[in-house]
């Protein structure tokens, strides 16, 4: 199997050669953030939204990186080109770096560790977008700063795992009686031709695909409500779907074994898939 | 400066040579746990309690490692010896390993990444145990599974950082009106010759030093109450202290700028310091 070319700290190398110190704060404290941009037709989707969110994560973590948006764009494009990605994603992670030892508080001057790699879209992901997926619910046990795109992801991993054991392809997390979001996606229900999704706060990630989609909804004939809703309301919805950088708009056909509507991909979901892909394709850079 | 000898995946090497793949799940998902054992007189403190907690963390994370307690004891002792640690700590981290790519759910068969290193006790830590430290409070924003000794530590890091900016040497976290614990330590108050500390649950780490100390308290003339208590009650306490594997019993002399008692290290705290160190020295292996 041909190795991917990956980026690390200013250069490109084979994936098997890309390594970080055991003292990297990303490894010792999950002191790191990341971004994932979708790739379509060999171009980057929603790039400026990802850069806005990256800046926000960095500010909230009190981190600085020696890259501007153009620098990151160049790295992401190089990764796509070197690995001939037509459809898939580019992942980039930014850790606070290493001060050569383990102390909770970082020493004043650290040089961030930055690495990136690509993935090709899998057949399974493509199929999910056509047929939809069943999901299962789980309490949201993550930290209180889900707005930061941190690598401290075990709350999501354990929840997704729990769902998978029941046959779910994503998890639907809930807290204090209300749905928060998916394990790695934003979540939406559709009732009476209106899309309902949780408003952004520190309780959920500020999804880039979510942002793009809601702009499209506002310019469509479909209604939009940003409000809290329960798991029970979700199970009584006409349709449901999730969104993510590499997921696009993916239909949800059942929650906790309860079929939504007639169990087929709904009309509003299909329309959103179409609208999003059309826009994303046109605006990919 | 002489490099430390560290342990990684079956061997020992210079610290600058110890590296992990960028695809290690410890780095991408904080999918890793750790243990820290104190070293005194060149011997390991509370070793069996640390191994019990390690087994518990592994089980809760659905992780397996190809080491038994004797194997880990041998590694920890070798690290202490190779680095001539008289007083300090041995840190060991266990990640789920890498499956060569990034997927939320691990592939079936992963080989864990295991590494360990030592630290010598600093003069600052020694001084803190004598004079006590001021601490500042912060909301507890960590995930709901604080009983797992996970490397997803940014909730603690950000809180400790916030405290440090105010002059605090540790943070006192609180949630729903009640104190949880320190950023990397267990927390106790003393009122009318009785030690009060939060009972263990998923809300706090099950401290090994805490466990050892509470056994000593139960065999002493000092009272013990395991119950919830508020930040306000803490500030009105006669004394307060924190415990941790490398902290031992460290006096707290002020909370949020409010001096406790007469601002000196209290009699009960001093007695606990004495009792703990005497026991730990005797039972270190």
Low-confidence stretches of chain A: none
**Principal-axis shape of chain A:** globular
- Mean pLDDT level of chain A: 97
Helix-residue proportion of chain A:
25-40%
SSE topology:
Two copies of one chain form a homodimer.
Chain A: E1 5-8, E2 11-14, E3 19-21, H1 25-29, E4 32-40, E5 43-44, H2 47-60, H3 69-82, E6 88-95, E7 113-120, H4 123-131, E8 133-139, H5 154-165, E9 171-175, E10 178-182, E11 186-191, E12 194-197, H6 208-218, E13 223-226, H7 231-235, E14 239-244, E15 248-255, E16 258-259, H8 267-283
Parallel strand pairs in A: 8-9, 8-15, 12-13
Antiparallel strand pairs in A: 1-2, 1-7, 4-5, 4-6, 6-7, 9-10, 11-12, 11-14, 14-15, 15-16
From the structure above, extract its key features.
homodimer, 285 residues, D-amino Acid Aminotransferase, Chain A, domain 1, D-amino Acid Aminotransferase, Chain A, domain 2, 2 domains, nine-stranded mixed sheet, six-stranded antiparallel sheet, 8 helices
Task: Describe the structure in your own words.
Two copies of one chain form a homodimer. By secondary structure, chain A is of the alpha+beta class. Chain A folds into two domains: 5-121, Aminotransferase class 4, branched-chain amino acid transferase, N-terminal domain (D-amino Acid Aminotransferase, Chain A, domain 1, 2-Layer Sandwich), CATH 3.30.470; 126-283, D-amino Acid Aminotransferase, Chain A, domain 2 (Alpha-Beta Barrel), CATH 3.20.10. The first copy, chain A, has helices at 25-29, 47-60, 69-82, 123-131, 154-165, 208-218, 231-235, 267-283; strands spanning 5-8, 11-14, 19-21, 32-40, 43-44, 88-95, 113-120, 133-139, 171-175, 178-182, 186-191, 194-197, 223-226, 239-244, 248-255, 258-259. In chain A, the strands form two sheets. In chain A, strands 8, 9, 10, 11, 12, 13, 14, 15 and 16 form a nine-stranded mixed β-sheet that branches. The longest helix of chain A is centred in the C-terminal third of the chain and has 17 residues, at 267-283. Chain A is globular and about 55 Å long. The two termini of chain A are 29 Å apart. The model of chain A has no long low-confidence stretch (mean pLDDT 97). The interface between A and B is large, with 51 and 51 residues.
